[in-house]
Amino acid sequence: MCGIVGYIGFKDVKEIILRGLEKLEYRGYDSAGIAVAYNNNIYICKEKGRIYSLRESIDRSITGYLGIGHTRWATHGEPNKTNSHPHQSSTGRFTLVHNGIIENEEELKNKYLQGVKLNSDTDTEIIVQLIEKFVNEGEPVDLAIRHTMSELKGSYALAIIDKEDMDTLYGAKNKTPLLAGKGDGFNMLSSDAMAMIDYTNLFYEIKDKEFLKVTKDSIEIFTISGEKVTRKPYKADIDTIDTEKGTYPHYMLKEIEEQPFVIRKIISEYTDENGNIKISPDILQDVRSCNKVYIIACGTSYHAGLIGKQFFEKISKKPTEVVIASEFIYNMPLLSEKPMFMFISQSGETADCISVLSKIKDMGYKTLTLTNVKGSTLYREVDHTLLLHAGPEIAVASTKAYTAQIAVLAILASSIDNRVNIDVCKELSIIANVMESLCSDKEKYKSLAEKYLVNSRNCFYIGRSMDYHVCLEASLKLKEISYIQTEGFPAGELKHGTIALIEKNTPVIGIITQEKINLNTRSNIREVEARGAATMIISMKKVSQDTDAIVIDNVNELLSPLVAIIPAQYLAYYAALLKGCDIDKPRNLAKSVTVE
Ligand code: M6R
Fold first, then answer.
1. What is the average per-residue pLDDT within 472-484?
2. Arithmetic mean of pLDDT, 270-295
C-alpha cells in the first residue's frame, strides 16, 4: 500500500527519492509524487500511474538536498494527480506525505478548518492544514505537529517539510510502519527498509505516537508529549542483491525458483550442528502448555495456516483453529480455556492481523508471529517470533513466503510433540530436491497454461483433504495475477451446487497427492468431464495415472503442499504472462496491506 520516503543530506535528492519509491513499487500503488526543497522553495511533481511517468515528468534542472516522496494506493478519493501526495498547506509552507487512514477527518474539518479551502478529496490534506493552523496560532513547528498528532484518530506515517526550515525533515508514526535510516552525512525516513537499503543498513525503529526531527547529521525521536526517547539503531541483514530481479523477467518467477534454496536455508537456520531442531525453549513451552492454537492470518498466509493446522493436529495432537484476521476482529470464536495465538504474515505489517494482536494482547494471551520481516510490527509486538528466512519477497503474489511458512510450521509442530514419527528436516531436504526438479519443467507449464487457461473466463481447482487447502492457494495465485475467476473447491462438494457452473471447456484442475482420497477425487473429475469440463490433473507419482498432466516425485504426504503448489504457481505465472498482465504488480492489489 502507500509508501513514503524522505531524505536529507548532501546528494541531489531526486534520484534517491525516485529509487526509493521504485523499491516500494512492490507494495502496490496507483499514483506517485515527490517534493524537493530548493532555493527556499518547494518543487512538487505528481503523476497518476507508474513511477516511470513521474520520472519522465520531473524537472531535471531542480537540485535539492531535502525531499519527500510517496506512492499512493487510493483510499479517500480517486487515483488522480490532485489526490496524490505530497499535499501542501494553504500558504505552501508545509508539505507532507502520509501513509495510513485518518478516521476523524470530518470531525477535524468541522472543528478546525471551517474557512480553509481544501484542494483534494484526501484525508491527508487535513493533517497538513492542521499543522499550519496551529503554527499560525503561535505554536512552534514541533509542538504544532505533536498537537496535530494528538488530534488524529487512525493510522499515519508522515514525512513533513517546512519551507522555512530546510535543514529539518519531520516524521511521525501511529499504527503504520515508519523507520529512520542512519547514514553518514545524511539521514532518511521510510515506511520500508527496502527503500533505504541501497544507502544504509542502520535503522531506528519508530514506535506508535512518536515524533521525529531529522537533520543530515542527527535523528531525534520524541514521544507525542515531547520527551526525548533514547534508542539504539539496529542493523538490517538485507542483501541489496536480494531486492533485484537479476536476469529474471519478473520477481514472481525469481521467487518461485528460489523456493528450493529457501527450504534449505530454513533447515540450516532451524537445526544445530548435530542436525537437531533448534527452537527457543520458551516458544516450545508456551505452545506445549496451551490447550488450543489459534492461527490468525490473511490471504496466502491464511492458506499456509490451514496446512499448519493439519501439522499441529496430526503431528503433535494440538487442537488448532485457523481464523481469517478480518473476521476474527468482529466475530471472535468462543476461545478455549488456555489459548495461544499464532500470527502468520509475510510482511508482518498486515493491518487486520495487527488489530487482532492488539485485542489479544489486552486479553493477556501468549502470542507468536511467523514472519519474513525482522523488525516489522508483528515481529516486535508479540511474545515470540519465528523468522521465515525467505529473503525479500517483492512480487505481490506470494510464493516463496507460502512454502517458507509451511516449512517453519512443520518444524515447529514436529518439535512440540512428535507423536507421528516424522523427521521433518530430512523430509524437507527431499522436498527441496523435488522442488528443484519441478522448476526445470517450465515449458510444460507454459504450454498447459496456453492450452487450458489463457482463453478461459473461469477455472476450478479441486481436491480433497490437504489437496483442497492447496487448491485454495492455487486458485488465489491464478486469479490475483491473471484475473481469471478461479475457485478452489473441495472435490466432493462440487455436486452440491457448484457443478452447475461447469460448461463446455471450463478448466478444472485436480490436485491429488494423498493415497486415501485418490480414487474419490478422480471420480469427481470424471463427473465434471462428463459435463464438458477440460480437466487436468496434478498428482504425486505414487497415485498417478498415465494421463495425468503433471506428476510430482513422491514426498511425505503430509508435506505434499510444499511441492503440489509449485506447478500451480507456474501455471498462474504463465497464464498471466500470456495474457499480458502486469505480473509483479497486479491491478488493485498491494503487497503490504496496511489498512483494515
Ligand atoms: O503479509 P501478509 O502475509 O500478512 O499478507 C497477507 C495477504 O495480504 C497476502 O498473502 C496476499 O493474499 C497475497 N497477495 C497473496 O499472494
1. 97
2. 94
Query: Of the candidates 36, 34, 60, 33, which has an alpha carbon nearest to the alpha carbon of residue 48?
Result: 33
Confirm or reject: Cβ of 325 under 6 Å from ligand 1.
no
Assess contact for 591 and 27: CB atoms under 8 A: yes
Q: Is the CB of 396 under 6 A from ligand 1?
A: yes
Last residue of a domain, one of 246, 277, 305: 246
DSSP 451: I
Is the same domain home to 450 and 591?
Answer: yes
**Candidates 347, 481, 486: which one to mutate for ligand 1, based on the most atoms within 8 Å of Cβ?**
347
What pLDDT is attached to residue 488? 97
Query: Are 220 and 84 part of one and the same domain?
Result: yes
pTM of the model: 0.79
- Please tell me whether residues 201 and 99 are part of one structural domain: yes
* Maximum C-alpha span of the chain: 81
Mean pLDDT confidence for 419-432: 88
With cell 522436498, the residue in question is 431
Last residue of a domain, one of 213, 246, 279: 246
- For ligand 1, the distance from its centroid to the CA atom of residue 100, given in whole angstroms, is 18
Count of domains observed in the chain:
3
Three-state secondary-structure class, residue 360: helix
- Which among 252, 256, 298 is the best mutation to test ligand 1's pocket, defined by most ligand atoms within 8 Å of the CB? 298
Residue range of the domain that includes 499: 441-596
252 and 170 share one domain:
no
pLDDT tens digit sequence for 100-112: 889 999 999 999 9
For residue range 547-569, what is the model confidence (pLDDT) as tens digits?
999 999 999 999 999 999 999 99
